[in-house]
Fold each of these.
Amino acid sequence: MKKIITVLAAAIATVTVFSGCVKHPAEYEIYTNIPSELYELKLEGFKVAQTVIGNVSAVEEGGAAENPSAYKSMGITYYDIMSTEATIVVSEDFTDEEAAKARCTAFIESVKAKLLEIDKSLSVSVETSAVSSFNSAAAGAKIEIDEIAYNVFNSALEMYEFTEYYYNPAVYYSVEAYGFKSDSTRPETAAQLPSAEKIEKFKQLSTHFGEVKTYEEEGKFYVEKPQATVEIDGVEYSMKIDLGGIGKGYAVDVVNAMMDESGFKYGNFDFGSSSIACKSHYKNGAYNLGFRNPRPSFFDESYMSLKVKNECISTSGDDVQYYIIDGVRYCHVIDPTTGKPVNNGIMSATVIGGTAAAGDALTTALMAMGKDKALNFIESKLQDVKVAFTYENK
């Protein structure tokens, strides 16, 4: 199923422009390394609590087309790619309408083909995918995989090390136990939550992700599963992973490169609203990016905005997939140090710049780190990308 789109200036799902401030009864904190002159606060309920020193700079002026009135945009949303939506939008000079339409259509179809190829490799819902083959294999097995999976496995291992293990795609069983897999049952009462013993064992198993090994031999690609297992209620579990987060970022990076190679300077690609690549906008040069309020009083409310152009944007939050039991919020982002949903006050994290794959891993890791660790990490390791996270005092 697909949807044809006509795209205007704000052509990414997370962009929302507000003319004034909106009052909120609660007050939330923003921590960022973005200088105050580069953004605009949109909601009175949010305040900047700390600005971390970094090397980030403003978006350069210009970038719009010389003859913007000749440009039109074409786009399509594809549904159920890696269990979410993917929207590609490109803008082209339509002076020669027939040629421009053919060029845009051909490119959009090439994006679809590439996304289906990535989905076939990485999706846990595709039984024949490389990730599914890894998950169903016995502990210690060596599995032949395709080049896409090989590249994403290596990126995941690199980000696992870089984030000091706070990004960990091997928390699969915890995500499942808390009801955030498509085929798992979501708890409705505290009694239905997974036991502390089960979660502890799942956590122990996930700590072995760094033991995953990848190989390239004679033009073929392989991954070796760790020997580690745990036993729960007489059932033996070997490691399972989900590369969906970093996989979406990888897809964004691939499509971003495809736009460059095909000469599309204007447009954007949005994968699930959590991973986005922006080129320039043919009318405005830059896009106006709104940071979505993780505690909205109405749909698509932004707490701050800034200009973006020729950058990738990644966001994680506890407000997309979650439930509340006895006043406690449980979300799909798992803290690998506890094996439980994050619950440290960080509500959302956004990274602008660098690759989308790295950004997706970083935002997940920042949410798990907690405020103090996240601030130290941003200051020491993320000086060259724009970062912001929201925090709720509890």
Amino acid sequence: MAKEYQHYPIEEYPNYLEDFEAEEELEIDWMAWCRKVWSRRRMILKVCSVAAALGLLFAFSMQRKYTTTVIMAQEVKSSSSSSGLRSLASMVGINLSSGSTQTDAIFPEIYPDIIASTPFLMNLYDAPIKTIDGKYDTTLYDYILNGPSGPWYTYVINGIMWVPKAVIGLFRGEQKELQLGDNANGKTQTGLRYVTKDEANVLRTITKCISLDVDKKTGVITLQVTMNDALASGMLADTVLRSLQSYITHYRTNKAREDLEYSQKLYDEAKTEYEKALDENAKFSDSNRNISLESRRTEQVRLTNEMNTTYQTFTLISQQLELAKAKVQENKPAYAVIQPPVVPRKSSNSRMSVLIIWIFLGFLGSVSWAIFGDQAKEKWAELRGKNEGEKLPAEAEA
């Protein structure tokens, strides 16, 4: 018995011809777009002219920014760099091999976090700042608070942003600044440092001015400081560079300096004991020069042995003191400043680039409207018609 095949209607088979025609219709008609743009060329020129005028207005109103770039590299010491120090220590009976496995908590990758920390930024408050025109010669803290104001459009932006803040403030209520019983040093009664409102604004401004980047492959450190004055930018970059080097040096040599202070204390005590024993021995010898008694010889031997013991202790501690001094010097990190701070000659923000951006945005917006404006209007009219059609049955039912 032959197998019967089920026949499907032709409508259920996919129509590949219609799909191919639909794909052809999705292709962009560049000639049609060019005709639309050419037909509305006057509108495009007007929009570009307005954008150019606004670009000129903003370009000549903006503040010039000057960026100082500093490039440096930190020397990496190998494990064999302290072999000479360990051999010197072994001569005086000290073993330094156990300390060679200590890890360093501060490495170049966290330098950006260091310069963004509150203590580091607060140390920059007293950084000297001068301007090329000689109008300002003050500290960084005073320059930010009482220095030159921003362009006019910053006040417009702040005024616009003030409205939502005021509305939110109505619901939150007035927030008073904390009063923590501060003293002259800006610390609370518990000794903790707190930040006032003015200091918070200064810290935000300094954070925006300073940036640091570390190349993980090469270890090159790039520091950039941007200010609205070329001389101020160069001076602040030099201060930040020195502060960062001082911060890292203080950390790396902290343990060695503590050991040096302790060795210096032992040295002073041993020196005092040795000089005391030396004086006692000399006085006893002078006062008993012509006496040949056994008790005199016994006391002389005792004083001599005590003097020799204190001398040996003094000599050993003297060697330890010199070793501690060498350890401090060894732990000091060395920096190779490839590009030192130099006062920039040109501003980092160009007025021409601002003008070009405005003209480009105006051209892009006007061309887009010339091509898709009619479709947008039709779509908007269609949506409005649907909304009105939905409202009419609802009103009739009511």
